[in-house]
Amino acid sequence: MTNLLLTLVSVEMTIVLILVFNNPLRNLVIKLLEKMKGGKGAVISKTVAATLFVVFISISYNVMEIQKYLWEGGVLNPTDEVLMGDRILDATLLGFALFLALVTYGLLHRIEVEMKPKHQFCDKK
Prior knowledge:
This protein is 82% helix and 0% strand. The protein contains 4 helices and no strands. The longest helix is centred in the C-terminal third of the chain and has 38 residues, at 78-115.
């Protein structure tokens, strides 16, 4: 799961960097994201985000269960320590992926507002 999450974070970081800086790929990425926002793409992306959030909560709960065992005076064996470290890494990457998805959505919204003609916002005197 770690490899998948690292790939997801890398792709999302690339999309954010493309949206932040003005380059030839920016218009293509904007068109693709706008097309994904409309129609069934919005429902699918919200469903995927909700599923990732549920997995994030589940992983966090597993980590808290292992830590609760440690706080009760138990001794962690090396297997539990490795599992806890792996779960913490997965939770961190998943949280960062969800954060980058929100950043991408915010950047796309800001770009859409900037691309609208300015005369729509001005009051006529």
